[in-house]
Amino acid sequence: MNLRKRLALAVTALAAGSGLAFAPPASAAPQQAAAGCAYPYVCFYKGATKTGQFKDVTSGWQNLGSSKGATSMVNTRHDDIVYTHFTNGKTWCTPPGNTTTFNSWVVDKIRISTASHC
């Protein structure tokens, strides 16, 4: 387990023990066919409605525009990770070929990186 995941689990356990509400995004295998998101895109959804897609690798953050506040994201890329930024200042990394569901955090920016793992 990588350091980022261990840290997330430790913070989650600490928050649960202290009674704080803490709900980081969760990653899972993508539902690409059902989601209508083709390679090499990173697609954002509000419920079942696709709100936007991105494919450019950038060194800085891209604003999501109409995808701000999306409820999920699909990363169809084979070798690139996706960083998402939230209005609370937190960030999250989604590995290639994964879907992330945004629980209570509000996503507002994206950065696609050529790194192959978080």
Description of the molecule:
Helix content is 17%, strand content 35%. It is an alpha+beta fold and 118 residues long. The protein has a single domain, classed as Gamma-B Crystallin, domain 1, CATH 2.60.20. Strand 6 (81-86) and strand 7 (91-94) form a beta hairpin. The relative contact order is 0.23.
The gist of it:
With 118 residues, the protein is of the alpha+beta class. The chain is 17% helix and 35% strand. It has a five-stranded antiparallel sheet with strand order 1-8-5-2-3, with no helix packed on it. Strands 4-9-6-7 form a four-stranded antiparallel sheet, with no helix packed on it.
The CATH class designation is: Mainly Beta
SSE sequence, one letter per element? HEHEEEEEEEE
Proportion of β residues? 25-35%
Going across the biggest sheet, name each strand in turn.
1-8-5-2-3
Ordered list of secondary-structure elements with their pairings:
Elements lengths: L2 H16 L7 E3 L3 H4 L6 E5 L2 E6 L7 E2 L8 E4 L5 E6 L4 E4 L3 E4 L5 E7 L5
Antiparallel strand pairs: 1-8, 2-3, 2-5, 4-9, 5-8, 6-7, 6-9
Keywords:
9 strands; globular; Gamma-B Crystallin, domain 1; 118 residues; alpha+beta; 35% strand
